[in-house]
Amino acid sequence: MSLTRFAVAALLAAALACAADFQSNWPKDLERPWVGPDYWSNPLQYWRIRDGRLECIAAGGDRNVYLLTRDVSPASGSIAMSVRLGRMEEDQGAAGPGFVGFRLGIRGLFKHYRDSAVRGYGMNAGLAANGRLFIARQGESKAKIEPPFTDVELRLTAEPAGATYKVVLQAFDRAGEKLGEDRRDVPADWLTGGVALVTASGAVEDTPPPEEKTLDPNFSAKRGTQRGGNMRFWFRDWKVSGTKVTAHPDRAWGPILWSMHTLSRGVLKLTAQMAPVGVREPQEVALQTQAGASAAWRTVATSAIDKMARTATFRVANWNDTKDTPYRVRYRDSSFSGTIRKDPKDKPEIVVAAFTGNNDLGFPHADVVRNVSHFKPDFLVFTGDQIYERVGEYAIQRAPLEAATLDYLRKWYLFGWEYMDLLKDIPAVALPDDHDVYHGNLWGAGGRHAEGIGNEGQDKGGYTMPAEWVNMVQRTQTSHHADPYDPTPVEQGISVYYGPMTIGGVSFAVVEDRKWKSAPKETVPKAGIINGWAQNREYDAARDGDAPGAQLLGPRQEKFLQEWVKDWSGGA
After folding, report:
1. Contact present, 213 and 49 (Cβ < 8 Å)
2. Which runs of E-coded beta strand occur in 332-407?
3. CA distance linking residue 14 with residue 301, whole number of Å
4. What global pTM score does this model have?
5. How far apart are the C-alpha atoms of 480 and 484, rounded to whole Å?
6. Number of other CB atoms surrounding residue 487 within 10 Å
7. φ and ψ at 115, to 5 degrees?
8. Euclidean distance between CA atoms 375 and 28, whole angstroms
9. Which of 40, 220, 279, 503 could join 117 via S-S bond, C-beta 3.0 to 4.6 A?
10. Nearest Cα residue to 39 out of 180, 238, 290
11. With 0-12 CB in 10 A as exposed, 13-18 as middle and 19+ as buried, what is 401?
């Protein structure tokens, strides 16, 4: 009997070990910036998959791809990783300074895998631009291989050796001949956390760095994420295994990332946020509902994926708002599920949860989500700055247009990664503010274009980013809102979203407080405005501040509000 139990336990252990094994499988017939559901790339616009491999297409500090679905546990055990890599074929000249290889034991401030994926640090092990193999500290390595690094396989193993781990890093050429080897004993604590592939330009620092110096939740940028350099590499056949490796299939994310919806006066509007799938992949998404737990799913609407915003937006009229309805968004063989709750018009009161200024200093804000859930809100209102320019590190990219779009989407994806468990079941609105469209302050001036960036551009009034980019931002945040009062675009063809929305017997007016607002530099020239603030000490706001013709909400929204206050239809 004991032998049988032993055999069962051995088989179970073996099965669990195999389940934790990982091997990359990047499609050979696709090109796209999204690496896949198993990964988080830093930053999104600097990576792509093409010809069955992962490519870093823009060099800089700490370009990395974090593996979401595996990590290294604190338990004692073995680790084995390998990957094939090579320098991008079109690159010429010296590659350095920098390194390419692995990062292990990645941990963020909050010890949460999402935080670790975005801002975590760990132990580097790989190939420096000067050809030296190294583990944690390059200066201690004597192993060196000669460039060019056209097709090299790195293999890393880690085995417990008393109180420490013996880590071995080897390099092989395409024919399997060993090129070099480095060995080092490291503390066990260095090998607990996430794993990633890295190609980084800049000085190769000792790792892992002290936590108290690197995981400081303030507004300073993550160290070593500067742009520039010449370390651009490709990767393929990434393998991760070992008894110390743990599988987390539930952490895979995408291609459907999350959804946001409203239900007003029997009309459902729902937007599914997608990852940037390839142009040769299917471009249609379905919204399906289920009448009961055992009933079949029925498609009630379909939507094409917006080419810039990567959104799929559905509008379903005559929705039965008297009952909870399970739904799922379906794309190929993946789905994202939630519940469209009945309109809470029979409740004596409704609960509104309001958010503003969503920086990433506490990302992934698990405590905020937990505490808000406690109050069982009926409605979520995000009143602006759903993202900031600094969110997710790696600064800001304003051009070219597609790279700027991916730069914004990466920051916006963090918002959804934080709040998706609330958003899937609770109606919500989001009101883009200044930082959402890459302004420190925004006076929309009716939607006109403003040349320049920073204070120079924004003080003129208008939008500094291209109109099609601004519309992309608004589609991600507002396309699920109730139908606008008057959808006529403003200048440059920039869309609008202001209008009424009724929930729980309460009529809300969704107002855009930035789009028509006059710029003070133009309307009160005596003030000498910089960044919205008067610089002229002789300026007296009480005496000189009246500005005839200046707009706050604009005539169109004022007309809407005048009609809205008189409208008591629809059970308001």
Report:
1. no
2. 334-340, 352-355, 379-382
3. 45
4. 0.94
5. 11
6. 11
7. -60, -45
8. 48
9. 40
10. 238
11. middle
Do 476 and 311 touch, CB atoms closer than 8 A? yes
Residue 76's alpha-carbon distances to 37, 113, 191, 365, 560, in angstroms, are 28, 20, 10, 31, 65
CA angle 168, 169, 174 (to 5 degrees): 140
Least Cα distance to 176 among 151, 199, 196, 148 occurs for 151
Calculate the CA dihedral of residues 400, 405, 408, 409 and round it to 10 degrees.
-150
Structure tokens at 211: 């936590």
pLDDT score for 443: 96
Q: What is the identity of the amino acid at 156? A: L
Question: What single-letter amino acid sits at 45?
Answer: Q
Please list the ranges in the chain whose pLDDT falls under 70: 1-18, 211-220
Give the whole-angstrom CA distance, residue 166 versus residue 493: 62
> CA 452 to CA 498: how far, in whole Å?
28
Task: For residues 88 and 235, give the distance between their C-alpha atoms in angstroms, rounded to a whole number.
Answer: 10
Tell me phi and psi for residue 193, to 5 degrees: 140, -160
**CB–CB of 184/138 below 8 Å?**
no
Do residues 416 and 460 make contact, with C-beta atoms less than 8 angstroms apart? no
CB 146 within 8 A of CB 131: yes
332 in the Ramachandran plot: left (φ > 0), alpha (ψ -120 to 50) or beta? Answer: left
Rounded-to-integer distance, Cα 489 and Cα 472, Å: 14
The candidate with the shortest Cα–Cα distance to 55, out of 18, 73, 76, 30, is 30
H helical segments located in 273-391: 366-374
pLDDT for 211 = 66
In angstroms, how far apart are the furthest CA atoms of the chain? 95
| Triad 315, 489, 286: Cα angle to 5° | 20
d(CA 568, CA 572): 5
- Dihedral angle sign, alpha carbons of residues 285, 290, 294, 297: negative
Residue 152, H or E segment: strand 152-161
Cβ–Cβ under 8 Å, residues 166 and 185:
yes
How far, in Å, CA of 275 to CA of 253, rounded? 9
